[in-house]
Structures are given as structure tokens and as C-alpha cells.
Input
Amino acid sequence: MKTLTRRDFLGKGAMLAGGTYPAMLALGLLRPAPAHAFNMEGSGNGKHIVILGAGLAGMASAYELNKLGYKCTILEARERTGGRCWSIRKGSTQTESGQPTATANFDQGQYFNAGPSRIPHNHELTLHYCKELGVPIQVYNNVNEGAFYFAEGKGPLSNKKIRVREVHSDIRGYMTEMLAKSIDHGALDSSLTKEDGEKIIEYLKAEGGLDVDKLYKASARRGYSELYGAADHPGKIGEAHKLADLIHSGLMDPDFYNVAEYTYELQMTMFQAVGGMDMIAHALEQKVAQSIKTGAEVTDITNLPEGVKITYKDAKGQQVINADLCICTLPLPVLSNISNNFSGDVSRAIDYIEYNKTGKIGLQFKRRFWEEDEHIYGGITHTNNDLTQIFYPSYDYLGKKGILIGYYNFNEKAEKIGALTYADREKFALEKGRLIHPQYDKEFENSFSVSWHKTKYNMGGWAVYGTETRKNQYPVLTKPDKNVYFAGEHLTYLNAWMAGAFESARYTVAAIHARVNEQRSNYPAPK
Output
């Protein structure tokens, strides 16, 4: 360890502090969405609002507007609602650019969530709508110390599946040992009193599992190489991995090492809708079904001196609809290719804001070997290859069959795998997945993959802001362009989350209602 400098150590140790989310919280860039019935005074007086997109933001907007007496029309290009809130089941279809239409052949009752799959406990607004709409929820096991880390490479621990608990316990142990020794020798050059130092050392010993000499040694918290049982079977605690081996095998690389329980949005308890996340979309659809026109692809958005004109095409040809106001919830890469007469600032903002590339594949297996053979119930296995993550289902435990998410990747990795044919994506997922789970070969049945950046009416997973676009482009779209309002997860600080769609919908509805009733909206801006 002579080559590990203090700077290197502090850089690695910073990962244990929880990443960027706490900093964002401290700066006020994240906050839980408010959860309360959306009761406002005044009436919509029959004003006609045309809503573009029947995703969560669009349908939630119509749901709340209908309560206030507005007439709503929702135009949705697809033949289904929900947008990215989509659970893949038997018969689900997908057409991506450059690919033929694919149809899911999963068994009846089997599914995986191609889009959002988790509801954080601090997303009160999403939970509020689940309660109001009668959507039952269940616990989602996001953090599972029994899942694996798998690092391809040339290190001593590379190309081996290692339990998450082993990596976490060993790294915390070595880090706290180094800190405890530094404090004990006064190496941190701080103004700690002797008593303060003793208290911190006791904390570090408990956090890292250190012995009385402040040395890290393997304990039961990292698991057993031989499990305990009855009679003369006390069990055998596994040997700790060497810190140098963890480092040289890539298990401490910033883009690989993951402590999900430290991340604000991913802290337990997390939830999911029973039967698939699209149950939330279906419940909303039932409330606003009379307002929805599916198979209606918008081709032109025109601000008029009074109202808006929307041109769209359906099975019968070109159609035109006029309304008093418009709420556009279309993803910005889609909106960028639709003819409009927006202002220069708005057009520039639509073009500048980027969306990430992301993809998932669901793999159906004859039996739930991850549970039966490896005792993994929910959670995530992390890799440094193009799989990125494998998700294990947090439902139907002990069932006969199951679907796991064979990869969930992002950016360059998602672009690379998304460029493959459906068959080659499956081949890739099986090739890399069997390195971790050799049971793949015997138990695999079929697959279905989705690359959101290649999906026509999405063209990306979710909005990704840089400092410049958040400062200059984002604020432009939180305001209306004459009679057109914009809404969606991309217009909040809750990007990628269902709560972002709900928060933005409420903010936009409040702004429209205040305008119609000539009053000031008191609903907080989406932050």
C-alpha cells in the first residue's frame, strides 16, 4: 500500500460520504414533492385545454383540470398511455428506429418495468396519487447486501462474483482503520480534545468492525464461508479481501463502487406498484379516458392571438384541434422535431437540453435460481462491463418462474448495446450474465429489450442538465410561451422520477388556473 497517497485515500474515502445528493440537498436543489389533495378555489368555466402526451404528467394534468371544471383533450401518438411508465407483459410491442416490431412472449403474469421501477419513500406526491387512485403498493428491495459485485479485469479479485456485503464491510473496515490510526496519532492536525478523539475512535471501531487495537478483521457482518447450523456446526467467517486487491480489481473505482443506501433518492424504504408500475398509469387513464385520443401524432403547434391550434395525424389523416390553452408534456427531443411558432428562447431551450441514453432487457427464466441457489431476493448486482446492473425482482418471491432485468445501462454503454439487434442484445446479456450466473444457460426462456433513446416518441430516457442548461434554458420552459405551457419530469429537479411528472403537472395546472381566474398562483415553483 506504499503507492496509495493521502490524496488517493481521501478521494476513495469520499465515496463513503454519499456522493453528490447530500450536497444538492444542502444547496436546496432537491426537496420532497408535497402530498396533499389539490384543492383550489375558482372554476375552469369550461375552458378547453389540449394536452400533448398521455404520460403521467399529461394525464395527471387532465385529472386535476377536470376537477376544476375544464374541458380537456389529450393527444397521444401511441396506442397506449403511460409514456415511460410502462411494464412489459405478454403481448407488449415495441418498434425502435432501425428495428422490426418486437412482441413480448413472456408467460401470462410475468412482467418487468421498462421505465420507472422504484418509488422513494420521500416522494410523497407519488405515494399520494397511489393512495388517491387506489393503486396498492409493496416494498421494493433496492438495497441487498446479498447481491454481487463483478469486475472484469486483471486484478486478483477480477472476474469473480463477490457479495456486496463483503466489499462494503472490507472497504469500510480498512477506511475506518486508517482514520482511527490517524486520529490516534494526531495526524489529522485538528483541534480535537482527547475525549473527542476517543469518542470518534469508538464510533469508527463500531462503523468499521475494528478490534480493540483498531485493526480491521473479518467479522460475521461480511458473511460466512461455511454457514452455521446445529450441533457441531458453528460456521466459519469468510476471510477479508486485501485492500490492495479491492483497489487493483476496480472494486473501488468511482464509476463502479456503489453504496445505494447513502443516496438520498435510493434510501430505503422504497416501494413499487403491485402488479407493475403501469398500474399507476392505468389508474389515471381510467379517470381521464373520455379525454384521450390515442394514435394521434402531433405535427404542428401554433400559438394564435387567442388560443392555440394543434395539427395532428391519425388513422383518418390530418386533423386540427383548437383550444384555449395547451400543455405540452412531450419529451424535448420529440418536441424539437415538431413544427411550431415558439419564441427563439423557447426553441433554443428545447434544442439545448439533452436526454440520456438508457436501455433495459428483461430475461425470463424457468426457475428463480437467484433465490433458490444464491439466496438473492431483490436488489442489484453491479458490474463494470456493459451490463452495468442486473436487477432482481422484488415480487413473487418463491414463485416458479421469474424475470430479472439482465442489464440496465446508460450513456455510452446504452448507446453501444442499443445499436445491436434485439437478438444480439439478448446474446450479449446472456454472454455477460452467465459469468455471474452460470444457471443462465439451462434456465433461460426468452427476452424483451427496450432502448429508450431509439424509441420514436421518447428519444431518450430523461432530461440531463449541465450547469449552463439548468441556469439558462431550464427557467425558460417553466414559463408559458403565450398560450402553450410545458410540463414533465424534465421541468423539475426530480428528473427521471415519476414524482417529477406529478410535481410539474400540479405546478402547471395551478399556473393555468390562476391565469383563467386572474389571480396569482401560490403553488411553489418546481425545484
About this structure: The two ends are 44 Å apart (CA to CA). Confidence is low (pLDDT under 50) at residues 4-34. The longest strand covers residues 402-410. The first helix runs from residue 6 to 13.
